[in-house]
């Protein structure tokens, strides 16, 4: 099966965005139909985009429309959308199901690369931080503000109510400071201040300020007091206070390319300190000097931490 060319796919995206806007006139609807009837290739491009859109059917139009708009203006996202639409047809939707497909991360409107951390000042005055290798869709439509987290870790300092959603459920943050990390399982929530509630498949759970929660099977469970120092990644720092080595190495692994592994025998060792996230190699060397462990390098990008 031949894929539609980029020009026709771009035109199909333009028409799709127009019709999803809610403001398409009868003349525009007729013009779209006329465009589809121009040739068999035009109709094929439209049908492939339609079938791909059906695979996104559980998304609200408010999320689907910005996704297509991003693809309209961003060549990289347009290529990804084109490839995904073709793959979705070839695989019959059985492999690229909505829950498993990587398309939300690829098409997210705010992303960070491995080792990159970013922040944005939002229209309502809120401040959004993304940790390394994270992807979110940020939607501000009038009084409705939604953050869909697809991957990684976010910290939001909310000046007004925000709905923060992920695959496991959603959190309504009235105001305050909330951190959410996908590990991918379980999800970790930290409400540093303010008011928030969590809803998975069951009842609504009020979150207490100053506490951490684990989300298991969509339900939020109290984990203990929140430690604001866990949010210092926004400043490029990893603060460890008698932290299990496995947790520290896991945080480093999210900041670097390649493989970083550790033996089960060293996972429970405790370490304290303030470490720079922009120099993970330096941190690993410090770990080896501090604890009874050694670093085994298979390559520069494949490191194992083993008992000394």
From TrEMBL:
<dbReference type="Pfam" id="PF04773">
    <property type="entry name" value="FecR"/>
</dbReference>
<dbReference type="InterPro" id="IPR006860">
    <property type="entry name" value="FecR"/>
</dbReference>
<dbReference type="InterPro" id="IPR012373">
    <property type="entry name" value="Ferrdict_sens_TM"/>
</dbReference>
<feature type="domain" description="FecR N-terminal">
    <location>
        <begin position="10"/>
        <end position="51"/>
    </location>
</feature>
<feature type="domain" description="FecR protein">
    <location>
        <begin position="111"/>
        <end position="196"/>
    </location>
</feature>
<dbReference type="Pfam" id="PF16220">
    <property type="entry name" value="DUF4880"/>
</dbReference>
<dbReference type="InterPro" id="IPR032623">
    <property type="entry name" value="FecR_N"/>
</dbReference>
<dbReference type="GO" id="GO:0016989">
    <property type="term" value="F:sigma factor antagonist activity"/>
</dbReference>
<protein>
    <submittedName>
        <fullName>Anti-sigma factor FoxR</fullName>
    </submittedName>
</protein>
């Amino acid at each position: 099966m031949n894929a539609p060319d980029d020009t026709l796919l771009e035109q199909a995206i333009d028409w799709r965005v127009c019709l999803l806007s809610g403001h398409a006139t009868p003349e525009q609807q007729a013009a779209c139909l006329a465009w589809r009837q121009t040739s068999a290739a035009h109709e094929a491009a439209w049908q492939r985009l339609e079938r791909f859109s059906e695979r996104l059917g559980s998304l609200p139009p408010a999320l689907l429309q910005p996704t297509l708009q991003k693809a309209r203006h961003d060549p990289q996202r347009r290529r990804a959308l084109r490839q995904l639409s073709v793959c979705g047809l070839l695989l019959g939707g059985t492999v690229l199901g909505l829950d498993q497909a990587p398309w939300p991360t690829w098409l997210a409107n705010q992303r960070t690369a491995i080792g990159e951390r970013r922040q944005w000042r939002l229209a309502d005055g809120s401040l959004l931080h993304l940790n390394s290798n994270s992807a979110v869709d940020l939607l501000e439509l009038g009084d409705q503000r939604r953050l869909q987290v697809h991957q990684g870790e976010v910290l939001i300092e909310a000046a007004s109510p925000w709905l923060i959603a992920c695959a496991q459920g959603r959190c309504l943050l009235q105001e305050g400071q909330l951190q959410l990390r996908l590990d991918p399982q379980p999800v970790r929530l930290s409400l540093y201040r303010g008011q928030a509630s969590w809803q998975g498949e069951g009842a609504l759970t009020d979150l207490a300020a100053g506490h951490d929660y684990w989300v298991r099977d969509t339900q939020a469970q109290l984990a203990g007091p929140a430690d604001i120092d866990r949010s210092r990644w926004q400043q490029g720092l990893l603060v460890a206070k008698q932290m299990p080595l496995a947790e520290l190495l896991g945080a480093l692994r999210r900041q670097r390319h390649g493989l970083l592994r550790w033996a089960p025998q060293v996972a429970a060792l405790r370490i304290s300190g303030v470490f720079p996230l922009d120099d993970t190699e330096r941190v690993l060397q410090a770990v080896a000097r501090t604890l009874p462990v050694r670093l085994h390098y298979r390559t520069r990008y494949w490191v194992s931490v083993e008992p000394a």
